[in-house]
Amino acid sequence: MRIALDAMGGDKAPAEPVAGAVLAARDLNISVSLVGPYDVVAAELGRHQASHLPIDIVDAPDVIDM
Question: How far apart are the first and last CA of the chain?
């Protein structure tokens, strides 16, 4: 199963969505596509030991703010 996740959605984005994606990939064996600005998402993903997990980044450079 692959899930696409808006990495920039929510009050504490991208920290919380990325952390959730890492947990899902690690504990539930789910593949995750994180959608958001590549540089921002990659930097946050780099804070986790996730290089071996089935997580990729779909570059979506535009973000709609509140």
Answer: 31
